[in-house]
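Anyone opening a protein record will find just a pair of labelled lines. A complete record is shown below as an example:
=====
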Amino acid sequence: MSYSDFTLGDLKDRFQLEFTEDEPLFPAVPDYEVPMELAAILREFIPLALAIDTEKARSELIVAPLLAKLKLSLKEISLFSGIEFNVDTEAGLSGRCDFILSKSREQYRLDAPILVMVEAKNDNIKSGIPQCGAEMIAAQRFNAEKNNEIKTIYGCVTTGSLWRFLKLTEKNFYIDTSEYHIQMPEKIMAIIALIASG
């Protein structure tokens, strides 16, 4: 079993998570000032990514530029893309993760504390929630093993066009009631920047 094999039922049964699905996670986040060069890249790349319409295109042309620009702006975080993250093979907490943000300046190896797991999906956010949730549990365990426990791990499932945030605090798993559209990158970047600075 790997991250992509999990269902919402697996998360609840295997890890005894309590789900909350009726709360906004970021009701009043001030906008982030999107750099002009990123705004220009997104204007060019979004139509191309949507025309190609594959998970890989959306990931490379929309998600990666946004996260990379944010990483370069926030010097205190590191960004990893497409790396193996094998924390507990027996529990199924293994596999490749699309993107990981860590509150560490170290860029040559993944170090704790991990803050955010980002999972890119082609066209269905709901199908990515269990996978991202499993990755968040793995991040929680990884941080604990490194004696760098932080109270909350965040996740995000995105189609490139739509972004939905998740939160894991101990055994409490929250699914945001809001989805954010890429036409509002200032909101998406503001939420990730808030998580990184918190």
